[in-house]
Amino acid sequence: MYKTTEQIRQTxxxxxxxxxxxxxxxxxxxxxxxxxxxxTNAGMNQFKNIFLGLKTIKDKNIASIQHCLRTGGKHxxxxxxxxxxxxxxxxxxxxxxxxxxxxxxxxxxxxWKLLTSKKWFNIDPNKLLVTIYEDxxxxxxxxxxxxxxxxxxxxxxxxxxxIKYTSENxxxxxxxxxxxxxxxxxxxxxxNIPGSIPGSKxxxxxRFLEIWNIVFIQYxxxxxxxxxxxxxxxxDTGMGLERIASVLQNVQSNYDIDxxxxxxxxxKKKFNLSNxxxxxxxxxxxxxxxxxxxxxxxxxxPSNEHRGYVLRKIIRRAIRHGRSIGLKKCFFYxxxxxxxxxxxxxxxxxxxxxxxxxxxxxxxxxxxxxxxNKGLKILKEEIKNLKNNVLDSNIVFYLYDTLGxxxxxxxxxCKEKNIQIDLNKLNKKIKNQKIINVKKKYKNTNKISxxxxxxxxxxxxxxxxxKTIIKKxxxxxxxxxxxxxxxxxxxxxxxxxxxxxxxGQIGDSGIIKSENGIFEVYNTTKNGNIIIHHGKIYSGTxxxxxxxxAIIDIKKxxxxxxxxxxxxxxxxxxxxxxxxxxxxxxxxxxxKKIRFDYTYFKNLNFKKIKKIEKxxxxxxxKNIKVKNFITTFKNAKQKKYIFLENKIYQxxxxxxxxxxxxxxxxxxxxxxxxxxxxxxxxxxENSISFGTRRIEAVTYKKAFKExxxxxxxxxxIKKLIQPxxxxxxxxxxxxxxxxxxxxxxxxxxxxxxxxxxxxxxxKKYIKINNHYIFFHILYNEQQxxxxxxxxxxxxxxxxxxxxxxxxxxxxxxxxxxxxxxxxIIQANTLILKILKKISGKGGGNIYFSEGIINSSLSxxxxxxxxxxxxxxKIQNKIKKL
Length: 881
What we know:
By secondary structure, the chain is α+β, with helices and mostly antiparallel strands. It has seven domains: about 5-255, Bira Bifunctional Protein, Domain 2 (BirA Bifunctional Protein, domain 2, 2-Layer Sandwich); about 255-375; about 385-445, no CATH class; about 455-550, Beta Barrel (Elongation Factor Tu (Ef-tu), domain 3), CATH 2.40.30.130; about 565-580 and about 600-710, Threonyl-trna Synthetase, Chain A, domain 2 (Threonyl-tRNA Synthetase, Chain A, domain 2, 2-Layer Sandwich), CATH 3.30.980.10; about 725-755; about 765-880, Roll (Diaminopimelate Epimerase, Chain A, domain 1), CATH 3.10.310. The chain contains 22 helices and 36 strands. The strands form eight sheets. Strands 1, 2, 5, 6, 7, 8, 9, 10 and 11 form a nine-stranded mixed β-sheet that branches. Strands 15-18-22-21-20-23 form a six-stranded antiparallel β-barrel. A six-stranded mixed β-sheet has the order 31-32-33-34-36-35, with helices on both faces. Strand 24 (about 585-590) and strand 25 form a beta hairpin. The chain is globular and about 95 Å long. Mean pLDDT is about 85; it is low at about 440-455.
């Protein structure tokens, strides 16, 4: 019965090949054209549109092994990973599918034959039991009469609260849409393992393991709880590779199967962890190296939003667990070769992107290490001083909001120590913070909401002006019959040459003119199929249902067209110079400049920037014709035309084609020939987040102006420096050498002054029973020097309270309390009391707090009041200590 994971994969595929199934490769972890999913989380995801009836497929019987990831939303396994024997973030789903071909009888026979036949998996039939939906009599009869299962092996799963189609064994894709009963197959590990039978209200435990779920998609759910039968029912099955491997390898935890055994043993050997007792952390690390590696291989990189945020959470959780077992140095990226070796024939993607995966993991760990070490230090101190078993949610929020220490890691750490967190209180804090951020974000935005049944006919590809009819007028989101008296509003036309902002290209501006008035359009946007003209009455009155002339600002449009075509050429140039793996992450095209965001993990030197610029200008000089045509989205994907991931496309899409240089899906406006751009100039290139860089560029007259500006600056520098023999570079190098020498000398003087300052401060204290209170005023001191002063004083006086006021443009307050004295007074409590009496804001933890004083009092009065308040609060408490 024993089979390696690799043998299981191959056996599964061989079986379904023998049953006339077409083998489909795993789709990407990123599902194209489905914004509802962050990641592929089930084998059926790549066939979703077929199940929904939006697409047809030639192959009726299919089998696949799909890469899946479950870390958020409904399927959130992240917090359980490492703590249960079955949960993973990344896993492989074995599945067979029928689209209008076979249904229940064949599905069940296939499953049983594969699992129990000696030729295939050879599992003892007596070790298996099944669940079925209580109304699915057909499935019951197949299991009973054809497979010959005893009644003890068949379990009916009832509807919830006697409401039809609400059973755990009635599957629904979404709120509405395809659905149907399912039958699940469980493996029984035996009576010596705790656990109740599936469907019982008791804890199922680990005795019975669900290994296969077969869904019969027979119905379509409509609103008002209405279900209709599908004309062409389908089958969707799923069997977790890791789970069936645990059965066939006779182990009770997925982390004991061959793949994970090799990874965990490889980690132990690599980092000399043979004596470690914390196997939970090793399980977390072994799981997370798989998921993070596959996510990166699918061109997702760590960031603070969307998929990148999920990846970042996974990496950081693994790093935190590494620290808990003594891996203090950067370690995570070093596990990638161990992972690749363990995955054998399923590692093609990992081998291809090995260097990229390792590089990204290393950079992310280095960036996170400082935050992690600081956060863990505070967390450990707080837990040491807990009077009960509950961690204050203020501490959790402070770690998250101020230090950037993820809440998930705090929860994870507390879970290990059996420490509870008041989650209700914490969630309220987070919710309030989000409300504040949203208010800030939308403070000055004008939200427009309008619903129009008609579609605006866009004619702006070929015409810059047209006669048309006004269909709708809105003022303050309300539909009106006319607009006048300098009013601001929105107009919707039957046809328009105005381009509605989309695809990175800004909207057109211009005028809408009737016999009685002129409406000045300052922006144009899209709302579904409607194009909205935003503007203001320039003169007279504009009425609904009247004939008007719509005229765009041609000069502005021509500049936008040059910049948009240049953006496509830049994208092509980046791929040529930096590599084909470059991905567009966003863009802005207006009449002034181009902004283009893309994925890349190295800094661009001057030479490469110039090479990109030169490549784009070569394309411009060739004066290539820019063509456009309509094709199907399916055809565009097959031909590998460039399109944006996570964007929904219609069946028919528009392609902008610039010879063999660039073919992109794009609805924007462009020049007729590349020569019209004249000149392309990069004005800025920098990193905007981890793995994402930004290029800003200009074209045509702006490009010439940029060159002239640089020449002008160069001439000014020449006049200022006045180099002999025109050797400007040598002269600048000499100036820089002198500057470095001066900086070094200045730093030495500052260090000496700091030492002198620290010695002076250390002599000025208030001593109470061998405890020292320092209260000192600094002027325009650097942050780094203030912390050096605090460290110096704390080392010299181990039982101390240090209060420093730094007067610069603002008045800064810092309080540091040693561990012993923190038992009687805490830094965060003390600073809040001070800032209550003297206006300001601030916070921190029990050992260190800081704030800004905003009081209108004079500095003398502030210092005097502050000193009196501090001494009154701590003097008597220290005496009692």
